[in-house]
Amino acid sequence: MSNIEELKAKVKAAIDERRDWLIDIARTILDNPEPGFHEVKTSRYVSEKLNELRIAHETGIALTGIKGYLRGGRPGPTVAVIGELDSLRVLEHAHADPETGAAHACGHHCQIGMMLGVAVGLMAPDVRDALTGNVALMAVPAEEFIDVEYRWNLHQEGKLGLMAGKQEFIRLGAFDDVDMAMMVHTSAAPEDKRFSVGGTNNGHVVKYVRFVGKASHAGGAPHQGVNALQAAMIALNALNAQRETMRNEDTIRLHGILTRGGAAVNSVPADVRYEGRVRGRDAAVIADANAKMDRCLRAGALALGAKVEIVTIPGYLPIKNDEALMDLFKSNARVLVGASEVATHSSDRNRGGSTDMGDVSQIMPVVHPYTGAATGTGHGTDYIINDYEQAVINPAKAMAMTVVDLLTGDAAKAKEVLAKSPPPMTKDQYLALQSSRLVEEVYEPV
Length: 446
Ligand SMILES: [Zn+2]
Ligand SMILES: [Zn+2]
Fold this sequence. Notes:
The protein is of the alpha/beta class.
């Protein structure tokens, strides 16, 4: 057995030894779901677990985020292993919090188990000392871009700059000493087999919209009111009329929810709020679709004589998976589950959704594989992890083994990855792009 194979065997044995502990962590987080920037209990829990492992870490990054380090025997590149802290809100999910509707309907609870599993594996005797470089363990808040009004208010209060976890980690400098990053997401899609690598997804911008009308008696004096709900309905119908102008290959998605429809049934609605999303395959097509959305929002206001306040919030950039990292991850995944159970998606295969790992991928090499460990519909009431071995243990092993590949010897593989893949933009360019996408408009027809 080569030195690398011996180290990987030790990594796997150490993770197996902590199998029940790791799965129990994932299940505990499942039963205590908290949406983005509310992950107070979850964050405290992760910190306790890191303390149990005696891993020094910082808390409170981007409100609830955590970053710890495992330092190798010699200085070298730093590889981040990321777990997402946040849940969604899906009412009626089997594991939903009855009070908040929060539910882990995207499997993020498994990612924290994976991240701690990587730590456990790399802390096996002799392994850590054999590494040239460091591992940054990052528990990151708020990947699901929900509760837009709450986040916008945090931004207005100066508590957040960018309004999603990894975006804000980048802005705050938490990625400044990181050279490359990896995480694994759960999947229920059969085409992801037990593991999949590759593919891309949509980028997006986020909309926070308020239609302002005039309240009056809905029965006695509707002529004195301005109905903000009707303005919103015209806007949303106009948006539907736009759909035929979208090209399939741009994978545009226009969607949203009304978060406030009025205050009382007998008063003409005067304050109606909409949270929306404009997704697409690149920044240019997103900008085009976003301009159409803004026209529709204005059209609703114009028709009713209402006012509309439109905030466009910088969302995510499409993900670019690094080929060399994919190859390393894939070869380890194959060892664990067999070659026939590891799928490779072409780089232009678009999953339709979005992730802020896309933002990280613009400034450093990343890999974001999926693990087929769930059943049901992603973000649906029936999205359930049915195989915790595949949801937590195997991804932890695959990532830890990939770290061994990257950082053993003089970290030659990590240096090779960095030399091969200069990132599309610098951190400063990324921050400038995102700040240019933040636009506030008030449209009030006269
Ligand atoms: Zn999700
Ligand atoms: Zn997710």
